[in-house]
Each structure stands twice: as C-alpha cells, then as structure tokens.
Design brief:
heterotetramer, A mainly alpha (about 200), B mainly alpha (about 170), C alpha/beta (about 160), D alpha/beta (about 200), B: 9 helices, D: 9 helices
C-alpha cells in the first residue's frame, strides 16, 4: 500500500535513494522524448513540432489514470499524495512569466537539465540564468510576498470544483487530449519546416 | 554520425507518466526540477555568504536543521536527472558539446536569450511554486486546479509571446 | 481485420483492466460509502430511537442485540436476535442485515459498542439503521458548570 | 495504423472504464471492515477520566483532546487544552490536519460515549493514527474528577495520590473555564500544536 515512504516510514537515506532513481528515470524519459533540443521544444509554438503536447498530455494522463486505478484497488492512499496548493495570483502571474521565459530560452528547467546532460551549452547558460532567477526571487521575496501569498484557495481539486466525479473528469480530459493529438498532427503537416525538423 | 532517432512521443510520454506514477507511489509526491535549481542556488549562497543567508528570512529556513540544502529529495532527483539524461544520450549517441540555435542568429544572441529565458522561467517558477514538471505536470496528475492553471498560463503566454520572438527560432 | 490485429495488445490490456475492476467491484470486504454519510445520518441523534417510539412503531422491525457473554440481556426486547459484535460481519449475519427491508435497530448494554457498530454498518451501505437510545439521553450534560471567578491562576499552572 | 490512433483507442478505452468505475474508495474508510471490527472490540482504545486528569496535571504534550460537542457547549466549559471539532461538522476536510497525524494521541470526548465513539470509528476507519476515547465522557469527568470526595476514615497512599490528582485537575478545569473568553482563546492558542504537512511540489 502506497505511498510507500510515508506508510512504511522509510529512513531518510532510502527516500533520497528513491529520489535519485526517480530522477534517473525522469531524465532518461525527457531525453528520449527529444526534450533535450530547444528547437524541438520551440516547435510547439510555431507548429512545426508538437512533441511537447503529445508527451505532456500522455504523461499526465498515464499518471492520473494509474494513480486513480491504484487507489481503486486499494494500493495507493491518494490522501497522502501531495496536491499542489492553489494561490490564484501567484500561479497565474508566475505562469505568464514562465511562458515568456520558455519562448526566450527554449527550455523549461526540467528539459534544460536534460539538455545539459548531453552537452548543450545553451542549456548550461539557461540554467545559470535559472540560478540567477532563483537568486533574484529570494532577494525580492519581501517585496512580492503579497502576490506570493495572495488569494489562497487551498488544495483545490478540479473535479470537485467542476462538480463531476473523478472518473468522468478523467474521461473528458482524455477525449480532449485525443482531439488535441489529432489537431497537433494536422498542424505539424500544415506548418511543417523540413529544414528545421531534419536538423534536430 | 548516424541519424539520431528519438523515441515515439506517445511511448516516451507513457514512460514519463510511469516515472511520475512511481514517484507518487513510492514517495507520495510529484516530480520537480525548478526546486532542484533553487536548492543549488541556496547552497551556493550559503557557501559564499553564510551571514547573509542566516539573516534573510527567505534563506534561513533552509539552514535551520544544520544540514546541507542539497540533502533534499528534489536536489537528489535533479542529480539523478543529469545521470539519466547522460545515459539516454550515450545510448542514442547524442552526446556532443554544441550550441543549438537557428542558423539565422549568432551564438551570442542565442546564449543571451537562453540566459534571460532562464532568469524569467525560474523566477516565475518560484512564484508559482513549481515549473512545468513540478506544478503543471505533477499537478495535473493529481487533478489540482493549480496544475491546470499553471499549464494554461505557461502555454498561453508562450503562444502570446511567440510572435515577438519568432526570429529566434524560425 | 488487419487493423484489428494491430490493436490486439490494446484490447488485451483493456480486457484485463475490466476483469480486475469487476473482481474488485464484487468484493464484499470493502467500505464504499463516504464518512460524511455517517456524520449526516447521526446529526442531532436522528439515528436514535427510544423504547417508547419503538413500541408504537407500526411497521415491521428487526432488533439486533450486540451483547456477548456477560453483557447480554441488560434490556429484553421480544423478537430480538443476538449477534455478538465480534461476529457482526459474519457472512450469515451480513446477509440478514443486507436483505432486511424493515428498520434495523441495534442495541447493547454499552452505548459505545452500539455506536461503533452503527458506523461500521452505515459505511457498508446498510439502510434504515437505528440505535436504541438508552433510558436517558447519554449526550446531554447532566451537570452545570459554575464559574468561580475567585480562583486566580497561579503562575505555575499555565 | 500509427501510434497516435493506437494510443487514442487505448486511452479512450481506459477513460470509459474510469468513467464507469462503480465507486470511488479514495475518500471511504481505508481499513477493511473486518480489520476495523477487530479494533472496535479491543479494550485498549479507552482512557479513564483519571488518566486524562493525570495527562493534564503533567502537561503531557503527547496527546490532544478533541471535544466533539457543539460549539456552545464547548464554550461553557471544556477540559483544558482540548480543541473543539463538533461532531456535526466532523467530515469537514479542514479538521483533517488535526485528526490525521501520527505524533499525538487523539482522545475524543463528548458528554457521553456515543458521539465520541462515532468519531473514534470514523477516524480509525480512515486509518488516522492513535485514536482513543475518554470513557464516560464529560459526565463521567464531572462525576469523578469534579465532584467526588474522599469518604472514610483512613486514606491509603494510593487513594491519596488518586484524590490529589483529581483535585489538581479540578482546580485547572475551574480556573481555565472561569477565565473571560478572550483569555480562554489565548490559552488555547498557546496550547495549539503545529501539525506536519505533506511534502511535495517544487518547494
């Protein structure tokens, strides 16, 4: 019965070892998906390569369905799985800033790390910028505390918020994803840029 | 060099989903990347200017227990990511030092924007309590509203800004 | 046909999940209700019934005595059946409870035993389930607290 | 047939199964019925009022008392240090951080045993750690701790200790409950214990 580290009260070193192995799997999956290439990631926003959408939605749905199924079979206590708290202002403003950073840098932190591991120099500079960004945040923290803590909505869950059951919401999400996959492959044909896709 | 082929995106997505699922099952939490960057930064600040770190209300909480900020789930996970990416790159023969950019721009311009992008992205990630992996992906997998809103905000704003930065990429 | 052949692993996977879900769905040893239903049904003692109410009840009812051993027989009600709390979830007893269309009334010498059994059965989805209230309302405060403003807090007591 | 179509069919199939899952056990009792029943019949789940009085005199911080009576009753008097979670509001998720923790023993009490036993069964069923009931509730507390007097000629050391314990608890109870409301709140806040939160996210 999971989460194992909480219910079996794992010692700290074991939990950290798990983190290391999860990280290896995470880095491997990102690199294999081609997320180590900034031009491939940027393709999402110009339509010539939509790998991001496909990987992102497939991964979220697999994890969502998997965790719900494990919970249904009594193997995972979802109450003990962390649910991100929703601070409306911070989430929206932070998300918009992240979007701008994404299109400028061509990476997000996770993909940047995966790109660094195969020797992309631009990814290294991106991560140095990331360190600077984190430093900047720490130093400006007293001034933006109000935004950071404002409009707290708790650990809100979207199925409860919409008033449908988890299963029905999952189904809606899957249908939306399948539709987006279809749209994405159409876009790849319409906006194709063979001169870029052949290089990456 | 032979043609480097990536994994099918759906298969890779399923693999990533299984990694996320095992993080939930084993540790009761999602994945994260910007957190690892934050802990690295805190460790650097702690090493360079310990006094400043102890004074600031932001840093001091990470030094309270007297252990290195790098002895942390997220920091270890990010270290694992480097290993995992390296293994994958080695298997698929993609290990190579290079600056990846559109041929139409200079190296200097690419690196400048990469730096700026990093500053923006991680600043935003700190504000939103997570990046694409920590907030959007992991959040969506547990159906948190925060996850969906982060995802929409990131991609929505990136599409909005894409037009201004198109010369960087196409 | 060729296309279906391509999908054989997909269908195999789906069929396995369906079978597992069905097996799980018919597992009797599983709580399915949300605890909120128990809290709601027990609001303001609406799940309790007094002896007088019971005797004036027109419909059929089934009285379950949860006492075992020495605790049995503190009150005597005709037509009651004895189900010691240890055996509450035996298949035979659960069948009786599940198939009963009448009101089910639980009682035992100790109100806490009845209360715990009530929550368990409520969460198993058994309807029309009541507790036989003890003589006097056990949840009323029978004493009156008199504030004593003359006592001063001593420093060591906080 | 390409991978997208295969994956789409697979995901939609799983989605249909998910939409028709007959029940959602995520918020139901985590214990199996037979496991819960075997805990129910055990006698280890009770604390006597004298034991609770001793906890209070020793300022024991390993337990928290949970008063499941209504807010009005709680305001009139309560055992010092307890927190009020009215049973009518028991399933409100905001209480979960107090109830679902492993560090402290949760001791439930009402006026009698009925509501505390409901609360005990629900918390135990949800697999929250360390649940207990103060046997007899506040009525028993009043009868034993507040009103009992020693009667007889010779007092044994054992009885002496017992009555001293009751007497001290009685004093604390009267003192705290005689305070004006503002000071009472202050006292509770001082006793308020931090509960741990789940780890996760990118923080």
């Amino acid at each position: 019965m999971g989460p194992l580290s909480i219910l079996s009260e794992f010692p700290e070193w074991l939990n950290l070892l798990i983190a290391l192995f999860i990280g290896i799997g995470f880095g491997f999956a990102l690199e294999q998906a081609g997320f180590s290439s900034s031009r491939r990631l940027a393709g999402m926003f110009y339509g010539y390569d939509t790998t991001v959408l496909k990987v992102f939605f497939t991964a979220a749905i697999v994890a969502l369905v998997g965790s719900q199924m494990l919970s249904f079979f009594g193997l995972l206590n979802l109450k003990l799985v962390y649910v991100n708290p929703y601070y409306m202002n911070a989430t929206i403003i932070g998300g918009v800033i992240m979007g701008a950073g994404f299109i400028m840098g061509g990476y997000c932190p996770g993909t940047g790390i995966s790109a660094l591991s195969i020797g992309k120099i631009d990814a290294m500079i991106f991560l140095v910028g990331g360190l600077a960004g984190a430093f900047l945040f720490a130093e400006t923290y007293p001034y933006i505390q109000e935004i950071f803590l404002g409009n707290y909505k708790g650990e809100m869950r979207i199925d409860e918020w919409m008033g449908v059951s988890t299963g029905v919401f999952t189904f809606i999400l899957i249908v939306a994803a399948v539709f987006l996959f279809w749209l994405a492959e159409l876009a790849e044909k319409k906006f194709s840029r063979p001169e870029i896709t052949s290089e990456i | 060099m032979e043609k480097r082929k990536y994994m099918n995106p759906y298969v890779a997505g399923a693999l990533l989903g299984l990694v996320l699922l095992s993080a939930m099952f084993l540790s009761g939490r999602g994945l994260g990347a910007s957190g690892g960057i934050k802990y690295t930064m805190i460790a650097i600040v702690g090493a360079v200017d310990k006094d400043h770190a102890m004074e600031s209300s932001y840093y001091s909480k990470y030094f309270e227990n007297g252990e290195s900020p790098l002895k942390n789930w997220l920091a270890l996970e990010v270290f694992g990511m480097l290993l995992g990416g390296f293994i994958s790159g080695a298997i698929s023969q993609r290990l190579k030092f290079k600056v990846e950019k559109s041929p139409k721009i200079t190296n200097r311009k690419r690196l400048l924007f990469a730096f700026l992008g990093g500053v923006f992205f991680v600043y935003g990630a700190q504000l939103a309590r997570g990046c694409t992996s920590g907030a959007a992906l992991s959040g969506m997998a547990v159906l948190s509203v925060a996850g969906f809103v982060t995802m929409i905000a990131i991609f929505g704003s990136a599409y909005l800004f894409a037009w201004f930065f198109r010369s960087l990429w196409i | 046909m060729k296309e279906l052949k391509n999908l054989q692993y997909v269908f195999l996977f789906l069929i396995i999940i369906v079978v597992l879900v069905l097996v799980r769905s018919f597992n009797p040893n599983l709580f399915r209700q949300v605890p909120g239903t128990a809290v709601e049904s027990a609001q303001n003692n609406s799940n309790s019934i007094t002896l007088a109410q019971l005797e004036s009840l027109k419909t059929q009812y089934l009285v379950i005595n949860l006492g075992s051993g020495g605790k049995f027989d503190s009150i005597r009600i005709k037509n009651s059946i004895n189900v010691p709390i240890e055996n509450l979830l035996d298949k035979k007893n659960l069948t009786i409870l599940n198939e009963s269309k009448d009101e089910i009334i639980l009682y035992s010498a100790d109100v806490s035993t009845t209360a715990k059994a009530w929550v368990i059965l409520n969460q198993l989805g058994i309807k029309k389930l009541f507790i036989l209230a003890p003589e006097e309302n056990s949840e009323a405060f029978i004493y009156i607290f008199q504030p004593d403003t003359t006592v001063r807090l001593e420093n060591d007591s906080i | 047939m390409n991978t997208r179509i295969k994956f789409s069919i697979l995901l939609i199939g799983v989605g249909i199964i998910m939409a028709f899952l007959p029940f959602n056990t995520a918020r139901s009792f985590q214990l199996k019925p037979d496991e819960l029943l075997s805990k129910t019949v055990s006698d280890d789940i009770y604390f006597s009022v004298d034991q609770v009085a001793r906890f209070i005199n020793n300022e024991d911080t390993t337990f928290q008392l949970i008063d499941v009576r209504s807010a009005e009753q709680f305001k009139v008097c309560n055992i010092p240090g307890s927190i009020n979670i009215p049973f009518n509001d028991f399933s409100n998720p905001k209480w979960e951080i107090y109830l679902n923790q492993k560090g402290l023993k949760n001791i439930y009490y009402g006026n009698g045993d009925q509501k505390a036993s409901y609360a005990w069964t629900i918390s135990t069923g949800l697999n929250y750690g360390n649940n207990f009931v103060m046997k007899g509730g506040l009525n028993e507390w009043y009868k034993t701790v507040m009103l009992s007097q020693f009667e007889g000629e010779n007092i044994t050391p054992r009885e002496n200790a017992l009555f001293e314990n009751r007497f001290n608890a009685r004093k604390t109870f009267t003192q705290i409950n005689s305070l004006p409301d503002s000071l009472k709140t202050h006292y509770f806040n001082a006793k308020h214990l931090q509960t741990s939160k789940l780890d996760g996210g990118c923080e």
